[in-house]
Amino acid sequence: MELLVSGSVPVVQKSRWLTVHALAVFAFLYLPIAVLIIYSFNGQGVGGFPPRNLTLNWYRILFQDGPIWDSVLNSLTVAVSAMAIALAFGIPAALALDRAEFPGKALFRRLVLLPLILPGIITGLSLLMLFREVNVKLSLVTIILGHGTALISVATTEVFAGLQKLNRAQEEASLDLGANYWQTFWRITVPNLKLSIIGAALLIFTLSMDEIAVSFFLIGRDNTLPLEIWGRLRRGITPEINAISTIIFVFSLAAIVLWYRLRVGGQGTSQVGAELTENTIAGCDSRV
Amino acid sequence: MFSRAYRVAITVPPLAWVTVFLLVPYLLMFCYSFWSVSESQAIVHSWNFSNYRELATKTVYWETLLRSMWIAARVTLFSLLLGYPLAYFLSFRAARRKDLYYQLVITPLWVSYLVRAYAWKTILGTDGVLNTLLQYAHLTRHPLDFLLYSPFAVVLTLTHIYTPFTLLPIYASLEHIPRNLIEASNDLGASPAQTFWRVIFPLSIPGVLAGATFAFVLSLGDFLAPLLLGGPSGIMISNIVVSLFGAAYNWPLGAAISFCMLLIVVGLLFFSERVEKKWSFS
Question: What angle do CA A184, A190, A192 make, to 5 degrees?
């Protein structure tokens, strides 16, 4: 590493340029979020500079707003159910990609991952056509099926990445010592994959809470939170949206900190997203 | 090591689910694209190419598709220009603060997509934050009206949304570059610029491709940002699909457009995977 110093002058110059660029990008990324939060306290509503008459009024209105809280409840129901479906099928899918050979495996791998990279509109519409053909009425259930199916991809990539780091000797020992596959799965495989599974679950939960493109087409009478917000945005700008978004942002931050603690507590880094995007493109291919 | 029963147990349930809820729907979309709608607004299950013929002959579809691709291309370019140097900064310059900066990049992803698009709307509108700020500072007298309801607003918002997505795979590929290669390059007398262009950049191409594919494909298929911020000149191909599935009620034609989009996406994925294999470091 000392040898890097030999080119120290250009490196420093480049570094300054890079630092300025980094600051600018961070400013760009955080500007809308800052505006969102500041104007949730603005007495004059959204827009208008400078913000004046700071107030908690929008929060008060928000807390009395029944439909928004109904939609929050709906979104939580959807997210938890979708998480259950995605994990129930995503974990075996990762195991299958890791340890079983079957005809159509390559196609299966691509198909599972497709919803991650495909625009949500295509997955949403194709499911809409399926539900129409078999005469299923649209409701929260159809949204759950949509989210669950689309997010199997997340569970599969995360768990597959975990499996690549797993030492199979423990499982072999367990089987040799007379435990059956079911026992081995619950006592050896799952505990070893704990971090991947929790990471996947958190990611699925947040993605589902925020999902709108698939839900847009599968919605019945009950709105999820993003669709409720969408409906209001179409009618005009309201600071209540800023207030609920600020609350959600604070909750997300808390979730990130929690996740960070978990990751740091366990082994490995906190860079789960990088793995996810990389695996999506590479397609859960163990050769990578 | 794993028995046949175990392998069946881990394979069959996900295979069945994915077949019913992914494969069949995508195939159904393909079937729909050959069907048509009768006068009484019922789906006619007779097979012909009329939807594809309509797509090929009516210029509005082509123009919108090309405009969407142009918007997506600009989003991709700007996301790369913003994302790559930042990824490089994180990987090579951030040192001990790496994890913190990484968190700072992905935290905006946890703010709802819709809410961020909406935040841009409150910034760019005629009575929005930016225009009132400019007037407050006496830089302009009248609100600038090209800011909102234009392709500019759509490109800006989508760039904001997809920059972190673009950065992540680039960062991952930079992190995977063995540091001793860089030291070797420096030892052998290469300048930092030469080291970057001859060693680091080629090895990061898989990440760049992955990030670019993400940004391009996801912004190509977006229909919410154009609805919210695009105005009439910012309409994208997915907006046409949405209206065909809604008020215009022509599901088969909408399915044909969607299927074309699906083909474009799968084609791009295939292409980027090929190029990536060629460039990947092994």
Answer: 100
Report how far apart, in Å, the C-alpha atoms of A210 and of each of A18, A213, A270, B11, B116 are.
Answer: 32, 10, 21, 30, 11
8 Å CB contact of B262 and A130: no
Nearest residue of A to residue B191, measured between CA atoms: A7
Chain B closest-CA separation from residue A193 CA (Å): 16
B37, β-bridge pairs: B43
A72 touches chain B (CB under 8 A): no
Report pLDDT digits (tens) over A217-263. Answer: 999 999 999 999 998 887 777 788 889 888 888 887 887 777 777 76
CA distance B9 to A88: 12
Question: How many contacts does A have with B, using Cβ atoms within 8 A?
Answer: 296
Fold of B58-279: MetI-like fold (1.10.3720)
Put simply, the answer to whether B7 touches A15 (Cβ < 8 Å) is no
Q: How far is CA A220 from CA A77, A140, A174, A215, in A?
A: 15, 7, 48, 9
Lowest-pLDDT range of A67-76, B95-104, B187-196, B251-260: B95-104
Contacts of A249 in chain B (CB under 8 A): 110-111
Among residues A119, A121, A95, A120, which one has the least CA distance to residue A108? A95
Assign B266 to helix, strand or coil. Answer: helix
Bridge-partner residues for B252, per DSSP? none
Task: Tell me the domain boundaries of chain B.
Answer: 58-279
Domains and CATH numbers, chain A: 66-282 (1.10.3720.10)
- SS3 of B204, please? helix
Tokens 């479906």 correspond to what residue? A85
Distance CA(B265)–CA(B22), nearest Å, equals 16
Q: Cβ A130–B21 below 8 Å, yes or no?
A: yes
